[in-house]
Write a structure and sequence with these properties.
This protein has 239 residues and is of the alpha/beta class. It contains 8 helices and 11 strands. The protein starts with 8 loop residues before the first strand and ends with a strand.
Length: 239
Amino acid sequence: MTEKLEYKRLLLKISGEALMGNDSYGINTTVLEFVAAEIKQVVETGVQLGLVIGAGNIFRGVAGASKGMDRTTADNMGMLATVMNSLAMQDALERVGVITRVMSAIPMQSVSEPYIRRRATRHLEKGRVVIFAAGTGNPYFTTDSAGVLRGLEIDADVVIKATKVDGVYDKDPFVHSDAVKFDRLTYDDVLQKGLRVMDAAGIALAKEDKLPIMVLNMAVAGNIGRAAKGENVGTLITL
C-alpha cells in the first residue's frame, strides 16, 4: 500500500566517493548493498526513483585536467567511469529484487539503454529504478548538474543529494567544531554565501524551475524514505 508521500518522484544524486566507503579507491560492495537496501525500502512505499552517480571513486575529469590532460578527454573518461558505477549499482539493486534500467547519455547499447526522456519516464511509471549514466553526455558539466537536469526532465518533485554529512553547514563540520548547520536555505543563499552544496550551474538550473534540493546523510538508515515523506532530515534548498 502506498504511504503518504510529500515527494512521489525523486532524483537521487550519490557521489562516487560515497561508494568507496572506507576504501581509498573503487567500489565498496558493503556500501553498494546498503544503498540498494535503502532504495528498495523507498521504492516499496510507492516512490518513483531516478538515480545519478558520480565517478570520483574511479576518475574525476577536473582532476585529470588539472594535471595537464585535455579537459574534454578527461571529462569523457569521467563520464565512462559513471557507467561503471551505474552497472555496479544496477547489479546490487537487482540482487535485492529491484527492477532497474541503466540509461546512458553516451550510447553503449551492449551494456545500457540510450537515454530517451519519454522511455525513462515510462520506466519510472512502471516502478522501475532508472540509473542515468554518463552525466549529460557533454564535457564541462558535473554529475551534480546532470542530476538536476535529469530531475527536471523527468518532472521529479525533489533532487536529493546524498552525502556523508547531515546537511549543509557554513563551513566544513569535519574540520571546524563550531560549524553551523542550516535547516533551510534559498538558492540565492547558496550562491551568495559560496556554500559547497553543488556547482553553481546545478543550483541555477534548479532555481529557474523551482526544483527543491535536499541534502542529507546517506549513511543513516531510513533517511531517504523519511525525506520522501517530507520529514526534515537534512537541509532543504528552495526559493
